[in-house]
Amino acid sequence: MTAEKVRENRLRRVAERRGYRLLKSRRRDPEALDYGGYMLIDVQTTAVILGATPVGFSATLDDVEAYFRETRRRHRDDRGAVDRASAAGTSNGPRQGVAAAAGSTADTSPRRVKRSSGGSESRRHTRSRHRGR
């Protein structure tokens, strides 16, 4: 395996851990604008985070690595600010909501909501059922 492929696989794993997907352009023409480029997509919202401008798949592995480095630094700085606020006795932290301030032991962590998968089929079924009457 080449060093470039190893680096790509490592960044794919980092992206997966952070809730992103790293896509590589499938273009085979070396003269194409998006040949060999990458795009970083948020899995939950399917929004393009990196590599959409000026053309699709315009990011390089260096761009992706710099993005992860910057977001990690920003996250670390935010977490440090929360820790300092907690030490000072203020309630500016994200985990110190109303339940935590009241001394409740309720779990305030966000929950994942499962989406139903029968959206369009159930609508089609409803339309055809009402159409005949």
Fold topology:
Elements: H1 3-17, E1 20-24, E2 38-42, E3 48-50, H2 61-88, H3 98-101, H4 119-131
Antiparallel strand pairs: 1-2, 2-3
Overall description:
With 133 residues, the chain is mostly helical. It has helices spanning 3-17, 61-88, 98-101, 119-131; strands at 20-24, 38-42, 48-50. It has a domain at 3-89. The chain is built from four helices and three strands. α1 (3-17) runs parallel beside α2. Mean pLDDT is 77; it is low at 93-102.
Mean pLDDT: 77
Quote the beta fraction. 5-15%
Which residues form runs of ≥5 with pLDDT under 50? 93-102
Shape: elongated
Helix/strand structural class: mainly alpha
Rg from Cα: 22 Å
Q: How large is the count of helical segments? A: 4
Question: Using DSSP, what is the number of strands?
Answer: 3
Distance between the termini: 64 Å
Q: In terms of quaternary structure, what is this?
A: single chain
**What is the share of helical residues?**
40-55%
The main sheet comes to:
3 strands, antiparallel
Listing every helix as H and every strand as E from the N terminus to the C terminus, the arrangement reads HEEEHHH
Strand order of the largest sheet: 1-2-3
